[in-house]
Amino acid sequence: MSAVTQPLAGALTAQTFLRAVDLSPVEPQVHDEAYEATTQYVPWPKAYGGDMVAQAAAAMMRSVDADRCLHSMHSYFMRPVDIGAAVRYEVERLRDGRGYSTRSVRGYQGGKVVYAAMGSFQVPEEGPEFQPAMPAAVDPESLRSAAEALEGVEGPAAEYWSAGRSFDMRHVPGPVYVQVEGERVPQQAVWVRAFDRLPDLADARSTADLHRTALAYVCDYTILEPILRVHGLAWADEGLATASLDHAMWFHRDGRADDWVLYAQEAVSGQRNRGLALGRFFDRSGRLLATVAQEGMIRAGRAH
């Protein structure tokens, strides 16, 4: 499949995400159970890392009892993954306790391990709560969509950023698609919402899992951008090379990814062509839904 000529899958709908997490059970070859999923179109040579995070999360979710939900997962991206090709996720049931379950999952493509993760699930309990305050941010309706920010910019990348990612993403202070809009500071925020309503599934737990999976899917698109921003780098810069290295995500509260969610992000450190960034997802009422930490490879072009 050509990453350049393949048409966009489902412009201005969430179908790209829903296709990504449409898993098929297959016969396990290594561990206790296995599933296959297909990576989605992107206009560059390797698959989007959020495909693997969300697909692995969905595979692990299928392997636990309905009384518990995913509260954390930790991932490593080991090899580039082909676009539009199947990845087999082998799930190992490491432990099932009264209150917690632990799973390991490996993604295979072409006979090689391309991705590995672990996840922990909890039976929900009642207890005291604490969270940081949601950062102040202008309303998403007052911000430009990606399509509006890229008006007049042509090419497969601009088309994909505008319509091909299943989610409307609106940047504060501005995007870093073709140039860094706003100050070169180590933080930014992105309002995120699925282009259309995600389906309600057979029960409340399955629906909540779908929205956790949606946050896992969308989180990788912009988490390295605070590092790009502080260095004055834009995605369209000639010679820029990036790759996700490892990823951690903690799920705190249930929420909906088809309503506006604020993804507040900050760069922690950049060194040796690697950078670490943190992100927090808040719903519009200020509830903290999830926290993300990710390290990536960032190699600037010669102009920088």
Automatic annotation (TrEMBL):
Residues 169-297 form the Acyl-CoA thioesterase 2 C-terminal domain. It comes from the Bacteria. Keywords: Hydrolase. Gene3D superfamilies: Acyl-CoA thioesterase, double hotdog domain (2.40.160.210). Residues 43-122 form the Acyl-CoA thioesterase-like N-terminal HotDog domain. The keyword DNA repair does not apply. Belongs to the C/M/P thioester hydrolase family. This is Thioesterase family protein. It comes from Arthrobacter hankyongi. The lineage of its organism: Bacteria, Bacillati, Actinomycetota, Actinomycetes, Micrococcales.
